[in-house]
Amino acid sequence: MSKYDYLVVGAGLFGAVFAHEAALRGKHVKVIEKRNHIAGNIYTKEVDGIQVHQYGAHIFHTSDKQIWEYVNQFAEFNRYTNSPVANYKGHMYNLPFNMNTFSELWGVRTPAEAQAKIQEQKDAAQLSGEPKNLEEQAISLIGTDIYEKLIKGYTEKQWGQKATDLPAFIIRRLPVRYTYDNNYFNDTYQGIPIGGYTQIVEKMLDHPEIDVETGVDFFANKNQYLADFPKIIFTGMIDQYFNYQLGELEYRSLRFETEERDVDNYQGNAVINYTDAETPYTRIIEHKHFEFGKGDKGKTIITREYPANWKRGDEPYYPVNNTRNNTLYKQYAELAKQEGNVIFGGRLGQYRYYDMHQVIHAALVTVNKISNL
Ligand code: FDA
């Protein structure tokens, strides 16, 4: 038997919060991570004085004061506000859909004019009954112009399917605002950690009761780990843990293409979405704008994000929570209950799209539950 109380598989945010809290409660924790770095998908790395978000744009946002205070123990946050811009065939529109967007699209000036325009387009579409697919759902919420220019191409690229083949539930609601407010989130607290995200996980794991090993895959020694550790917190893919015995859960993957440009300011915003169907990427991130232009003079780093199908061996970025996959996940969750000493957590272990604040909350709940047993 090992000297450790817990083996944490995965040094992402869930694993790190769990390990940190368990160590504070006097437990001895071993963390293994298959990548050659800690921090999972929130990993950031400094290049040319710029914090590069290696696995896509990460903006911390929450309305939960406790979670905000919790994360602020590990880093100071700047005042970054997520206000992406859409590029549709060279025309720029503010997001989320708000009075700036409506004014750019139609020249309207007041909320009443914008509402009338949207209503007119909804009426002209002559949809009746429950929306049968994502296209009908979007048009019934926001009308045809915004659907055609800002939703259709982007969503089809994101999911790799036609909007008429995608289920309506993907967009139950759309962020629509009848004010001139480009803040994407409605949350009370928002920002980017000054100095990047990796330091947060580094500080969480920097405890005498925690040992971390990177470049170690759980599946290389699964049976040994199960025999050696009294309890395992597993934050990898739940279907892989069970050797896909009930079938594969589906994921969407991404390909990131990062390049350094010899200019101070490439696109003038941290995130620009490309909402037409022809551009193969969904967005370009210019990392220095997350920190208000910090970084070396005359240099900037940009990343193009290409959605991709997932197959075994690829990075599983997004769970595809449709009915088929959710049903299959429930069956895996039943198997998981029988796996007495293993707790499945995080985005991949629970097959759920978690934002960072939600994953911190879920890890805190898990550690509290276990330590109360
Ligand atoms: P995460 O995937 O980060 O960590 C799991 C770790 O386990 C990984 O490091 C993996 O390598 C490791 N692992 C898996 N299998 C293993 C094995 N067999 N052996 C050893 N190690 C193994 N959230 C937000 O709040 N604001 C935002 O703006 C964004 N933006 C965003 C963009 C993109 C492109 C993505 C994909 C996600 C976001 N998120 C986000 C979500 C955010 O990334 C997410 O909440 C956390 O990273 C989830 O942390 P986890 O620990 O659950 O998973």
Automatic annotation (TrEMBL):
Gene3D superfamilies from the UniProt entry: NAD(P)-binding Rossmann-like Domain (3.40.50.720)
A GO molecular function held by the record: UDP-galactopyranose mutase activity
GO cellular component terms given for this protein: cytosol
InterPro entries, per the entry: UDP-GALP_mutase (IPR004379), UDP-GalPyranose_mutase_C (IPR015899)
Pfam families, alphabetized: GLF (PF03275), NAD_binding_8 (PF13450)
Top EC class for this record: isomerase
Known EC number: 5.4.99.9
Cofactor: FAD
Record carries keyword Flavoprotein: yes
Highest taxon of source: Bacteria
Domain UDP-galactopyranose mutase C-terminal, residue spans: 149-353
Family classification: Belongs to the UDP-galactopyranose/dTDP-fucopyranose mutase family.
NCBIfam families the record matches: UDP-GALP_mutase
Record-given protein name: UDP-galactopyranose mutase
Organism this protein belongs to: Lactiplantibacillus plantarum (strain ATCC BAA-793 / NCIMB 8826 / WCFS1)
